[in-house]
Design a protein that fits this description.
GO terms for molecular function: serine-type endopeptidase activity. It comes from Gracilimonas mengyeensis. This is Membrane associated serine protease, rhomboid family. The chain is mainly alpha-helical. It has a domain of 191 residues: Rhomboid-like fold, CATH 1.20.1540. The chain is built from 14 helices and 6 strands. The protein has a two-stranded antiparallel ribbon with strand order 1-2. A two-stranded antiparallel sheet has the order 3-4. It is globular, with a radius of gyration of 22 Å.
Amino acid sequence: MNNSYFQGGGRMRDNMPYDSFGGALKRGFMGMPVAIRTIILINAVVFVIQMLGGQTLNGWLVPTLGFDPSFPTFLTQPWRLVTYMFLHGGFLHFLFNMLWLWWMGRSVEETLGPRTFTVIYFGAGILGAVLDAAIAMVFGSALVIGASGAVTGILVAFAMLFPTAPIMLFLFPPIQARFFVAGWIAIDILFLGSGDGVARLVHLGGALGGYLLIKAHQDGKDLSLPVRYLEYLFGRMKSSTSSKSSSKKRPRNKNMSIVQDAEIVEEIDQDELDAILEKISKKGYDSLTKEEKRKLFELSKKQ
């Protein structure tokens, strides 16, 4: 006897495995690219601490870890160039920064790799803070918190890598990424010095950082080197001398190749890769088949 039946318009089977909400959430989270997953996790943890700590804890966290562009604080307390990106002023501030990071950053990380993505993200955030400090005397100085500068750099990176990819906004027709990001930057320029409480200079500095770093990548610069160096310092990467002294070396598989910002991955035909990237630029990342997404992801995944 067939144990299957219909319920609520959908076919149900009594032997079908059901995943719990927590299991599905964990699986979805672990399915994120590694750099984005880590950045979102740290931001979420810090935000929960801010919320649970209330005004007392925030009264210490924000003045201590937020970016202060006034002289000489930004020079004598350089850690603020990074820590300010993990603090947020409210739930919507946190939510939209993380959503934009996920929506636009996913394709960037899957294309460039987690190390290069990390350098672009933090590089854009740092340059945004530096620009804010450099022009603080003109527009006035105020404590800055939030990942918006770094996220703006990722938006610019996406627009440069996939200029014609459609961006879908509520009640708007599809907008090509290059026009959407150009409009985003134009708004920041128009509202400079408006006193609306938004760090426009940080956004513009982040956009400039994203542009310069993507240009450097396109010119052949290996942006993953800073992250590789940190991995080496923290013992996560073996030094080349220790590998040379190994008594037994494994022969290299002819079907494997080495790329700048990933571990050893299966070699992919260049023409096929170009076709995938062209498809993304015309129709967007979601137009790819599962097989095409797998092949693209193999360029950036770790071994």
